[in-house]
Amino acid sequence: MSLTLALLALLSAAPHFASAHGGLANYTVGDPPVWYRGYDPDENATEQDGQPWMVQRKWASIDPIFSATDPYIACNKPGTPGPAYIPVTAGQNLTAVYWYWLHPVGPMTAWLAACPPLDKGGCVGVDVNQLDWFKIWEAGLIPGTGNLAEGIWYQKAFQNWDGSPDLWPATIPATLKAGLYIVRHEILSIHIENKPQFYPECAHLNVTGPGTDLPPSSFYKKFPGAYDPDDPSLKIDIYSDAMRKTYVSRPSLLLLEHS
Ligand SMILES: *[C@@H]1O[C@H](CO)[C@@H](O)[C@H](O)[C@H]1NC(C)=O
Ligand SMILES: *[C@@H]1O[C@H](CO)[C@@H](O)[C@H](O)[C@H]1NC(C)=O
Ligand SMILES: *[C@@H]1O[C@H](CO)[C@@H](O)[C@H](O)[C@H]1NC(C)=O
Ligand SMILES: *[C@@H]1O[C@H](CO)[C@@H](O)[C@H](O)[C@H]1NC(C)=O
Ligand SMILES: [Cu+2]
């Protein structure tokens, strides 16, 4: 752990840390990276809505979603699709780019859901609340860094404070069946007691490769549906004395693994 990270962790241990929000601005694939532009809530909507290059589902505001059962928890609000797909080969990393991320605590997860083929509407035609989502990546408190309040979460560790973007790479499973998918990145911030903040963003992917794998149906979750609002890892005060010692983890879904 670098000294800078240690200092930031100390600073951010204060209970009611800054309330600025944010979201996933861009995606990159490959090395050297090919960049894909996302939706920008601060820019003119008319110049983004339905544009032929738009790979990301629209998120109109940087504000979080506060309810685990919010109808927009799948792909943010309004979640309107664009027509484009990010091409990615199974086994490659897809990197989510945040230009700044301020919140320090809570888990981060990445999910996929298969869409019908293009001639059946692709990802544009789907109802994201009906999709079968499976988790491909997760990270929480980094083991060995301390307790819930003072330890370092991946959500803190992936932040850069030198002006360069915060990069969150996740591997598209190498044996995943080729086809069209929606990728869903979620940052869950739990720095305010009993008031979880969900920050989901979705994009459309065109996955190529020789794979044929999809996880068994026991891996699938709906959004909303995946989370119980009464889950002790959502209704949580991490700065309480009890929580400094223990943490009831949100039920974890296994990562997709190939045979
Ligand atoms: C990143 O996305 C933003 C919109 O969210 C866009 O303005 C910017 O041009 C993108 N950057 C690159 C390098 O694609
Ligand atoms: C947004 O862009 C449209 C199309 O370019 C333009 O007509 C409109 O004036 C812009 N709105 C703002 C608030 O800049
Ligand atoms: C790909 O992503 C994984 C998982 O997040 C990470 O450990 C690995 O370093 C990344 N590889 C590259 C080349 O970025
Ligand atoms: C997906 O990629 C394949 C291979 O490059 C291409 O033939 C197909 O047109 C792409 N589909 C979409 C919807 O982009
Ligand atoms: Cu915020």
From TrEMBL:
Q: Does the keyword Metal-binding apply?
A: yes
Q: Which reaction does it catalyse?
A: [(1->4)-beta-D-glucosyl]n+m + reduced acceptor + O2 = 4-dehydro-beta-D-glucosyl-[(1->4)-beta-D-glucosyl]n-1 + [(1->4)-beta-D-glucosyl]m + acceptor + H2O
What's its EC? 1.14.99.56
Q: What cofactor does its activity depend on? A: Cu(2+)
Chief location category: secreted
Pfam families (alphabetical): AA9
Auxiliary Activity family 9 catalytic domain: which residues? 21-247
Q: Which residues form the signal peptide?
A: 1-20
| Origin: domain of life | Eukaryota
Entry's localization field: Secreted
Q: Which CDD domains match?
A: LPMO_AA9
Top-tier EC class: oxidoreductase
Q: Which UniProt keywords apply?
A: Carbohydrate metabolism, Cellulose degradation, Copper, Disulfide bond, Metal-binding, Monooxygenase, Oxidoreductase, Polysaccharide degradation, Secreted, Signal
User: What does the similarity note say?
Assistant: Belongs to the polysaccharide monooxygenase AA9 family.
Q: What name has this protein been given in UniProt?
A: lytic cellulose monooxygenase (C4-dehydrogenating)
- Annotated organism of origin: Sporothrix eucalyptigena
